[in-house]
Amino acid sequence: MDWYEDEDLWTGFSEVMFSPERSAQAARHVTGSPLLRFPAGARVLDQCCGMGVFTVPLARQGYAVTGVDLSPVMLARAERACADAGVKAELVRGDMREYVRPGAFDAVINLYTSFGYFEAPEENLRVLRNAHDSLAPGGRLVVDVMGKETYARWAGQPKVVEVPGGQVFMADTILDDWTRYRTEWTLVRDGTARRAALTCFVYSAAELRALFEAAGFTGVECFGGFGGEPYDNLATRLIVRGTRSG
Ligand SMILES: C[S@@+](CC[C@H](N)C(=O)[O-])C[C@H]1O[C@@H](n2cnc3c(N)ncnc32)[C@H](O)[C@@H]1O
């Protein structure tokens, strides 16, 4: 089993990745971010939707949202989140390397470091090609990851995150000459330790832009945050947006 298929990673560490604070922040991004503003009623594909942190507020905005995720557990949570919020979204179990619905969407999003998971570089490129081919002409893809330039400022320093009744210890290792990284997470609670690890590509803005262009996108732009800030020394995220031209 590859690390991204490990339900224990997504569910066991969900307090870190999918906290109520993050959901509130995502909802603010959906109403306020110029990068997540789409034409009224737009058809939006949420690639790797997880438990619907962005799916729900996007559906609430009136977009026709399709969420795709590999994990049945995460999809069940997304379904519950939609029901709790009183919104409708199509939820599909699928692999981002395989899922493609030609010309069916006005926007595709891939948010919160859900890209760069595959060891073979061409599989990550295929994810962008699938997004490109799923867009109608003029449609846009938005990918949000931690950029290499930003990550380099703190990578290697062990990090501790407080969670209810415990702590999560995080330690990173840089691999393959800054091509990829491995993060090991240990949740210590009630005298027990639970571990998980992930290995992911980390892209500079220039590398991710080149990948978008290789997948066929035009007008590729990089931003440093959901406010549309420049990708500079103050960037908190690397957000790349490209257009399917024809
Ligand atoms: C970091 S979470 C982000 C979820 C969501 N975008 C968010 O903002 O909360 C990554 C998600 O990718 C899903 N995933 C992992 N590998 C996948 C694959 N090959 N195809 C589709 N989804 C995948 C996981 O199940 C998980 O829900």
UniProtKB/TrEMBL annotation:
Keywords: Methyltransferase, S-adenosyl-L-methionine, Transferase. The keyword 4Fe-4S does not apply. The lineage of its organism: Bacteria, Bacillati, Actinomycetota, Actinomycetes, Streptosporangiales. It comes from Sphaerisporangium album. Gene3D superfamilies: S-adenosyl-L-methionine-dependent methyltransferases, Vaccinia Virus protein VP39. Coiled coil: none annotated. Residues 44-139 form the Methyltransferase domain. InterPro entries: Methyltransf_25, SAM-dependent_MTases_sf. GO terms for biological process: methylation. This is Class I SAM-dependent methyltransferase.
